[in-house]
Specification:
alpha/beta, Aspartate Aminotransferase, domain 2, Aspartate Aminotransferase, domain 1, seven-stranded mixed beta sheet, three-stranded antiparallel beta sheet, 13 helices, 13% strand, globular, metal-binding, cysteine desulfurase activity, iron-sulfur, aminotransferase, PyrdxlP-dep_Trfase_small
Length: 374
């Protein structure tokens, strides 16, 4: 059976260029970048070269770019560090109600610890906008966290406008850009965010490596203690092999920008054919700005868990939503917060694409859906 992978928002397959770059390092070098001898210095030089590559890809100074174990660590670090430093005069935190679990659940944890946190509800299209922020904004609001691209719906939030609003109001702004990296063109210097989180395995790089951009590194307390790695911001020996893979993935995906229209064609064809095949089908967020890499589609009257498993048995991998929330069998918090009908929420599947997907895979998926849902 030839398998089809349409769950690229959960993780992407590593491309051969990344595998080869990591293999070369793992078979020839092994030094700890904190060591002063020859092996350590080779590792240090390669690590800093990779930092420059990825920082340049994002358009930020490399001295403000720090490696982590992934998006979840980065989001936890930023939220918990900021919350610990807020003053009584400015202590209010706003979090989008549609955030990834690593932000949303961290916010819930901090709220239980006494942090003053409110959640921003989306508008009718599922967007988090300045208008929505102003509904819950207070004079003592100090920090706002809003994702760039929603990991379930693919909806693109107006992050530049939000960043400008935060700057005018002297509010620190964090953006989880894990699903935006390599899929939405942006220059961090133009956006002027205070914190930004990215991850390698969403752009065909390795798992367990990510990074954060911190505009003023001296203002953020370390999340991990016990070493002076990452300029004293994060203790622990750096994952040099993973960082090399991250840098190579950034170069690879940057070279694919011109092919983004191809992915858009796949998405458009997929959604148009679904509407022809199924009268009740709902493309979630269809009227909002969206990335071409995610289509969340509902088939009212169809159980999404059952359909997912039947597709998998036929060799097609999709998901019911966020990979970090899978296995809970609970309806999607994101879709519920968008005030969608229950039969839409419980019948929604996420199909997420990459530069590696082909039109024949879309055709096969449509053929299977037609058989399984009829």
């Amino acid at each position: 059976m030839k398998r089809i992978y349409l769950d690229n928002a959960a993780t992407t397959p590593m491309v051969s260029e990344v595998i080869e770059a990591m293999h070369e390092w793992n078979t020839r070098f092994f030094g700890n970048p904190s060591s002063v001898h020859h092996f350590g210095q080779i590792a240090r030089a390669r690590l800093e070269e990779c930092r420059d590559i990825i920082a340049d890809f994002l358009g930020v100074p490399s001295k403000k770019f720090f490696f982590t174990s992934g998006g979840t660590e980065g989001n936890n670090w930023i939220l918990k560090s900021v919350a610990a430093q807020l003053t009584s005069e400015k202590k209010h935190i706003l979090i989008s109600a549609l955030e990834h679990a690593s932000v949303f659940e961290t916010a819930r944890f901090l709220k239980k610890q006494g942090a003053d946190i409110d959640f921003i509800e989306p508008d009718g299209e599922g967007l988090i906008t300045v208008d929505q922020i102003q509904k819950v904004l207070r004079k003592d609001t100090a920090f706002i966290s809003i994702m760039y691209v929603n990991n379930e719906t693919g909806i693109i939030n107006p992050v530049k406008e939000i960043a400008d609003f935060c700057k005018k109001n002297n509010i620190q702004f964090h953006c989880d850009a894990v699903q935006a990296l390599g899929k939405v063109d942006f220059e961090l210097q133009e956006m002027d965010v205070d914190f930004l989180t990215v991850s390698a395995h969403k752009i065909h790089g390795p798992k367990a490596v990510g990074a954060v951009y911190i505009k003023e590194p001296a203002l953020l307390e370390p999340f991990l203690h016990g070493g002076q790695q990452e300029a004293g911001t994060r203790a622990g020996t750096e994952n040099v092999s993973g960082i090399i893979g991250f840098a190579r993935a950034a170069q690879w995906i940057a070279s694919r920008r011109s092919q983004r229209d191809k992915v858009k064609q796949l998405q458009s064809y997929f959604e148009e054919r679904l509407k022809e095949l199924f009268k009740k089908v709902v493309v979630i967020g269809g009227d909002a700005p969206r990335t071409p890499f995610i289509s969340q589609v509902a088939f009212p009257g169809v159980d999404n868990q059952n359909l997912l498993m039947r597709l998998d048995l036929n060799g097609i991998a999709v998901s019911v939503g966020s990979a970090c929330s899978s296995g809970t069998l609970k309806p999607s918090r994101v879709l519920q917060k968008m005030h969608l009908a229950d039969d839409v929420v419980r019948s929604a599947l996420r199909f997420s694409f990459s530069y590696l997907n082909k039109m024949e895979e879309i055709e096969t998926t449509l053929e299977n859906l037609k058989i399984l849902i009829s």
